[in-house]
Design goal:
Layout: H1 9-25, H2 44-78
């Protein structure tokens, strides 16, 4: 197992392989992570565009849902 938290994707995959093999020996059979990265690192602009157009509005809506759910009981008690 790894002694420290890796900061790169390859390091995280290398640390996860022993865990995957342990779970396989305990009866959870699945394919372990590949050591080769399958993502295209040149898609940073596309990822940032996705985060701005999809992820940020979704997070905002979820924050409103949580805020409403948490404050409604407080308002009902005050009334």
């Amino acid at each position: 197992m790894c002694c420290s938290v890796p900061t790169d994707s390859v390091g995280r995959v290398q640390c996860s392989r022993p865990c995957a093999s342990t779970t396989t020996t305990r009866g959870l059979a699945f394919e372990g992570p590949a050591l080769e990265l399958d993502g295209d690192p040149s898609n940073l602009l596309r990822e940032l565009r996705w985060a701005a157009t999809e992820a940020t509005p979704w997070l905002y809506r979820r924050a409103l849902d949580v805020t409403t759910a948490l404050t409604r009981p407080l308002i009902m008690r005050a009334i």
